[in-house]
Request: fold
Amino acid sequence: MNPGSARQRAVLTALLLTPGQPVAAAQLKEAVWPRNPPNDVMANLHSYVSNLRRILEPGRQPRSRDTMLRREPAGYVLVVDPEAIDAVRFERQLYEGRRQLKSGAYRQAGLTLAGALALWRGPAFPEVSDYALGAQTASRFEELRLLALETLWEAELAEERDFSVIAAELPTLTMRFPTRERFSWLLMKALYRTGRRAEAIEAYHRTRRALAEEYGVDPGAELQQLFGTILRGDPVVGRC
Reply:
């Protein structure tokens, strides 16, 4: 489905942030025109809504009752099956994958989480990045995406697949998110399990330096515990 122009996409995205709930015209105005709105805002907004109705329900007869994009006293409501929304499906699959991981179904967890991450096609909600609710929701989903990546690699490690592949993939994430301790923990464990003890130790020190420079803090207890295990040359046991 092609929702049309950038501003028309912003209207649709603003409605998708709270599917099934009314969004006031003033909120849509803020989402579409966060700065310097035109004088004919409402006329433009009505035009975008009309266009979206035709796109969402191409077979709807003229003057028939709107079923997907309705106007109610409190605002516009987008009525849609939650499973048709990638963000909803992603979040459901993320928590399903985490549940599978905790239950020991490591392979299934990996498949579920990989499927969840495949739903991403770029940044979250870029059409409404200057809209307060849009920015907050995007930030939340970006954090959930990182959680999904962490959980996916935990599942891969727990399944004890080829650690060398995991060790080759994780450095990119630790470089992009140098203060994200869980990524460092996963990389250190993968390196250590492939006999690359010195690299695992260096990975710890990189994270320690990044945390000190960015926040003035030391690594958390879990990362320090793994570091101690590697220094002693003890085996890493358990999933966590």
Notes: Residues 132-158 form the longest helix (27 residues).
